[in-house]
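About this split. The held-out portion is used to measure sequence recovery: a designer receives only the structure tokens and must propose an amino acid at every position. Recovery is the fraction of positions where the proposal matches the reference. Here is one held-out target exactly as it appears in the evaluation file.
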């Protein structure tokens, strides 16, 4: 019998499935689709984009292995949330993304295609910068933790390494 509360089990369920590379990439592409649906007033496309974002981590299975870059992003995001949101660069990128994203949505609502395109691209660039910094922060933190536990530990393998630990 599990001692975790239902909300913890649900969170675990969602994190595990969100680590699926398909989850990460479909969510990346769902944002421009969402913005386009707002810009062009395509209600079915809007509903489909919102539904895809909402059900994404529920319908996709837990990945067989979590060695994809998007899986690293989810592991890093979970670590950051669970261990307190540390790091000035990470917080700055996270905070900067919100008004740009809202601006993209507002520009689409106001039917300003150029502003919509620029702000959508900027929002996505900021998000990619954030998740890249997040993964680097996670790798540094877990390497430090592993080093504290075992003096000979080298930390987690990078996503650029192959199964045998060598670089491709």
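Reference sequence for scoring:
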């Amino acid at each position: 019998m599990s001692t975790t509360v239902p909300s913890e089990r649900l969170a675990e369920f969602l994190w595990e499935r969100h680590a699926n590379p398909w989850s990460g990439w479909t969510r990346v592409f769902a944002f421009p689709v969402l913005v386009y649906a707002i810009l062009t007033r395509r209600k079915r496309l809007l509903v489909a984009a919102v539904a895809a974002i909402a059900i994404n981590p529920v319908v996709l299975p837990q990945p067989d292995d979590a060695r994809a870059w998007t899986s690293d992003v989810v592991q890093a995001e979970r670590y950051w949330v669970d261990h307190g949101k540390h790091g000035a660069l990470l917080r700055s990128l996270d905070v900067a993304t919100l008004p740009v994203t809202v601006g993209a949505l507002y520009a689409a609502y106001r039917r300003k295609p150029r502003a919509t395109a620029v702000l959508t691209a900027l929002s996505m660039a900021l998000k990619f910068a954030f998740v890249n910094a997040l993964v680097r922060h996670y790798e540094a933190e877990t390497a430090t933790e592993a080093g504290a536990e075992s003096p000979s530990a080298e930390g987690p393998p990078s996503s650029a390494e192959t199964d045998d630990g060598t670089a491709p």
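Annotator remark: The two ends are 44 Å apart (CA to CA).
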